[in-house]
Amino acid sequence: MKSNFIQKIKDSVLSHAPKGYISFVMLILIMIVPISSCKKSFLDVVPDNVSTIANAFVSKTEAEKYLFTCYSYLPTETDPTYNVGLTAGDEVWVEDPANHIRSTNVLQLPRGFQNSSDPIANYMNGTRDAAANYKAIRDCNVFIENVSDQTKVRDLDIDTRERWIAEAQFLKAFYHFQLFRAYGPIPIIDKNLAIDASIDEIRVKRRPVDEVVNYIADLYDKAAAKLPLTIRNEGSELGRVTKAAALSMKAKLLVTAASPLFNGNPDYSSFKNKDGEQLFNPAFSAEKWQRAADACKTAIDFCESQNISLYTFPTPTIPLSDTTMTQMSIRNAMSEKWNDELIWGLTANNNINYNSFFQSMCAGQYDFNNADAAKSANRPLLGPTIKMAKMFYTKNGVPINEDKTLDFSDIAQLKVGTHADRFNIKEGETTARLNFDREPRYYADLGFDRGVWYMANSPTKTDENTWWLKSRGAEVGQSSPIPIAGFYMKKALNWHYEWATVTYINYPWPEMRLSDLYLLYSEALNEAQGPVADVYTYVNRIRARAGLPTVQQSWSNFSINPTKYTTKDGMRSIIQRERSLELCFEGHRFWDLLRWKTAGVELNGNVTGWSISENSPELYYRERTIYSRHFVIPRDYLWPIQESDLLVNQNLVQNPNW
């Protein structure tokens, strides 16, 4: 059931949506102008068409509406055509966004169409396909200023007042973080400018990376001090932020800031403001990694004190194999709504229309015993690539090119599913070598031709002889394309989805869950101190939930590089791969590749998939090139600022090479 909070957000967005494009520079000008016009604008949050800020804070009810407007700018991650983290990376590919999916520039990002005249996913202005973060910050500033004034909102008790201010501070920090990870050094908008501000004050400058990071971290600290420990009223407040969310997002900020993109990056050693102020600190700081590790551990300890824990699928009333039970724990960590692992779930722009669109991009076609009961759904055009499929471990917990006991040199070799494979691959059906002997996350996260796809509506009520996937050309009367590479985002589809009636289960987008925090901690601690005990402990907790041996056991017993995990460099590689697998399709990998400075390698080269139009397995299982993509180094590591903003505000400098 949709919470009242989600509905309030939806109503706020519908009532107070932007009327049109407002550039970042114009926004700075607006910040000094009081709202007095009777014309509706995106800032109007008061009833009865009264459009003054003063009236927005005459009562608790009206002030809360304004707070919901601050929430309404949160990103629309459940829509792949808005989710840069998912769409711009190398996890998935879409066939032809212009022909098959509503027009949006985000889907053109991986095709190299980013530009400075009309930037794709303009996080500053939010013109089409990204959150309007500076508009959001302005509204947060208005809210904080007015609710902090004890003479306003007189019916608001002190505890609620402090909580609401803390929520706005958190959101303000998050919107600054959205800008920081895309642009690096950004203008900090701590307060809206006064009406008599000088021209020099209006023409804001970008601030150095370290100053930006410290500012955002301080906002998270202030918010954490007053935010509730947990959500008490789950019927109306699910999706609102808590202390756990503030501590965790601060940890993510500091890990990002300690990463190679922002920590002693030589590519930007000469990047300065027009007055000569250096925007990137050219010196690497190991202390930044230790600060990040400390923040992660603080967040972990607090989350665990609030009973936030790695999700495990509860024992069902119907019998399921251990194989399926493990897969359900993996799948549902993302798509089971409000599960125990979720630290912060986005709901503000996660209404059923967006979420159903996202889940329709994940749903597959299935067949039961080759009978006429075969069903089809809105089969997706967006789906995982062969590169993503190769990335998953073998059943021994090491990469397929490192396992000394299993041969994956010919991933297209044809094999037939046996009785022992029946919970992963349809018994008696032919599929590729790539689909055999893989780790549980492979079968939990990916839908593939002849793969088993257990759902709550299993025709046998169990995982024996349940649904399985057919995805070859012209099978079962296909009337719409299947994913271009032949794989589906199985993990992202809620297991209660009904193919026959196309019924979707809405769930919050997992912006932060405990496994993410565990891996951030392991990464930061490894960089600060090397592979000490806690580095292994927290990675191994995630591997245990995924049905894998420990890092030490897997590499020692099965890898051609058995000592890899004993060095900082080796463990770095392992942790980065664990993040890519554990958090796949959740919008993290693209941003990780940027901050690790590995995007220049990972986002260049051919995108490949199976020959999906073919019907016979001999022809279907041929790896083909879909697209040859290019990532320009170092230009593409930072977003371009729109050229028109640079013309209006001569204090702004463009990111290098744009």
UniProtKB/TrEMBL annotation:
Gene3D superfamilies listed in its UniProt record: 1.25.40.390
Subcellular location as annotated: Cell outer membrane
Limits of the RagB/SusD domain: 341-658
GO cellular component terms, semicolon-separated: cell outer membrane
Superkingdom of the organism of origin: Bacteria
Keywords recorded for this protein, A-Z: Cell outer membrane, Membrane, Signal, Transmembrane, Transmembrane helix
Pfam families: SusD-like_3, SusD_RagB
Annotated TM spans: 20-37
Domain SusD-like N-terminal: 42-253
Cited InterPro entries: SusD-like_N, SusD_RagB_dom, TPR-like_helical_dom_sf
Family: Belongs to the SusD family.
Protein name: Starch-binding associating with outer membrane
Organism: Mucilaginibacter gossypiicola
